[in-house]
Specification:
The protein has a domain of 124 residues: Beta Barrel (Thrombin, subunit H), CATH 2.40.10.10. Helices cover 25% and strands 30% of the residues. It contains 6 helices and 12 strands. It has a 6-stranded antiparallel barrel with strand order 1-2-3-6-5-4. A 6-stranded antiparallel barrel has the order 7-8-9-12-11-10.
């Protein structure tokens, strides 16, 4: 009887190990996310305005999350209104999960804004700090890596329940793309193409209205790597499309780091 060579047997063993590893990795990632979500959710807030005489009193505008010392909330600049109806006692507020039922809202003020990257920082005006989320090092982000984001998709309809979605970084791409026809250019896109290259994360994940300002984080560590953004990015990235693409985007965390450095 001829003995089976060792090398084919080794190849079979290696192939079996690879299959087992491929099956184990998604389970490991899911387990990490299950472990992390109870730590992530207390940091997530709904951003909006509150007016006691209005029905409903709280008007939802987008998502935010606690950063820095826990008294700062990061969100998209387009989520924050330029003005509020002070004469009608309307104020800018954030609400944590469950606050909608109790009617509790915490007043905030805008302390910093980066219109060029559509980011804003709000400061809580009272009460205890929120648990801040850690910000990741920018060099860690790579195409193909797993990501998750938590926020309030269609929050004005579905309520203030944090919802988490998963996906991957599909591409790291410029926000402004040269167009083949000058008719497809608009003033915003022209400014994008004439300024420094601004790259955003294109995601293989579905975000919804209300997810703007949600933290995009590493599902293994919980470190925030970006801020979800739909309106601002699509205004240049997909300006020539007549129908929404369904693609989601996020602003890299390095821009929020710079904004934080000017506040703390």
């Amino acid at each position: 009887m001829t003995a089976t060579p060792a090398w084919p047997r080794r190849r079979v063993l290696l192939a079996g190990a690879a299959v087992a590893l491929a099956a184990w990795m998604p389970q490991r990632a899911a387990a990490d996310l299950v472990r992390l979500l109870p730590q992530i959710k207390p940091s997530i807030v709904a951003v909006g305005t509150y007016q006691r005489t209005r029905s409903p009193a709280f008007r939802f505008l987008g998502t935010g999350f606690a950063v820095g010392d826990g008294r700062l909330v990061a969100t998209n600049a387009h989520v924050v209104p330029e003005t509020t109806a002070n004469e009608q006692m309307e104020v800018l507020v954030v609400m944590s999960p469950g606050d909608e039922q109790t009617g509790m809202a915490r007043q905030v003020v805008r302390v910093a804004s980066d219109r060029g990257h559509d980011l804003a920082l709000l400061r809580l005006q009272g009460g205890p700090p929120l648990p801040p989320l850690p910000l990741a090092a920018t060099e860690r982000v790579q195409e193909g890596q797993a990501v998750a984001f938590t926020g309030f998709p269609i929050g004005n309809v579905l309520g203030m329940t944090p919802v988490t979605h998963r996906g991957i970084i599909a591409a790291i791409t410029p926000i402004g793309i040269p167009q083949a026809n000058s008719r497809d250019l608009n003033p915003v896109l022209v400014r994008r193409l004439s300024s420094e290259v601004f790259r955003v994360y294109q995601l293989d994940a579905t975000a919804y209205p209300g997810n703007s300002g949600s933290p995009l984080f590493d599902p293994e560590t919980g470190d925030v790597i970006g801020v979800m953004n739909m309106v601002f990015v699509k205004s240049t990235k997909e300006s020539v499309l007549t129908d929404p693409s369904g693609i989601s985007y996020a602003i890299p965390i390095e821009h929020l780091r710079k904004l934080l450095a000017n506040v703390q």
